């Protein structure tokens, strides 16, 4: 296997991080990986909010919990509790991807978040993709949260990712070869 394939196969979701900060070189490489992602019709209608401050990350956690409580979604709350009440797992970098809504914006964001996950893995870092922060950017507090986290006007949350140095091990998920259908 070449190193790209090794990276693809080695990535897994890591839900505990050491407090070690990322270097400016690492952050710069990750910014580049995000911006290098392809978008439908090359619209590039997405923005990458790089959260490296502990205070901002703590605020994001609070906003998510406020959003979940406001939604009354008890299943979501139980899922959060089962993960130690943490959504971003104290990672030193959380990237929130927001986009101008369009036919392909979720696909574009999915491609970009995987670019970030693989770039991180290739640099000796780990990650977990995060859908749960959506709770902070929907419901009654949505507009305030979007303003607080610098979303441009009209942009909506798509997906987020925590990145850092792993403080746990987890094997990549198993998969079923029959999910690929050869014709
Ligand atoms: C779109 C998407 C949203 C996800 N949201 C979360 C999340 O909010 N919290 C979390 O801990 N993991 C989340 N995950 C991680 C998945 O649970 C994980 O990718 C899956 O269990 C497979 O495990 P692996 O990534 O280790 O292969 C998400 C993954 C994807 C692709």
Overview of this protein structure:
It is a single chain. With 183 residues, the chain is of the alpha+beta class. The chain has a single domain (12-167), classed as NADH Oxidase. 39% of the residues lie in helices and 15% in strands. The protein has 6 helices and 4 strands; from the N terminus they run ααβααβαβαβ. The chain has helices at residues 3-10, 24-35, 54-71, 74-82, 105-122, 142-148; strands at residues 46-51, 93-99, 126-130, 156-164. It has a 4-stranded antiparallel sheet. Helix 2 (24-35) packs antiparallel against helix 5. The longest helix is centred in the middle third of the chain and has 18 residues, at 54-71. The chain is globular, with a radius of gyration of 17 Å. The two termini are 25 Å apart. The model has no long low-confidence stretch (mean pLDDT 96). The structure holds flavin mononucleotide. Residues 12-13, 15, 83, 128-132, 159, 170, 172-173 line the site of flavin mononucleotide.
């Amino acid at each position: 296997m070449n190193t790209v394939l090794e990276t693809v196969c080695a990535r897994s979701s890591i839900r505990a991080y050491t407090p070690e900060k990322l270097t400016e070189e690492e952050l710069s490489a990750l910014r580049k990986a995000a911006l290098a992602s392809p978008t439908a019709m090359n619209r590039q209608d997405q923005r990458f909010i790089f959260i490296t401050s502990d205070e901002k990350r703590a605020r994001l956690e609070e906003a998510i919990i406020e959003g979940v409580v406001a939604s009354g979604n008890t299943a979501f709350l139980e899922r959060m509790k089962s993960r130690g009440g943490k959504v971003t797992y104290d990672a030193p970098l959380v990237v929130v991807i927001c986009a101008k809504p369009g036919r392909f914006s979720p696909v574009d964001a999915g491609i970009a978040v995987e670019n970030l996950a693989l770039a991180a893995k290739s640099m000796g870092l780990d990650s977990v993709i995060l859908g749960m922060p959506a709770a902070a950017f929907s419901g009654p507090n949505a507009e305030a949260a979007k303003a607080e986290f610098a979303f441009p006007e009209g942009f909506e949350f798509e997906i987020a990712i925590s990145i850092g140095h792993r403080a746990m091990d987890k094997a990549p998920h198993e998969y079923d070869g029959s999910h690929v259908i050869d014709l």
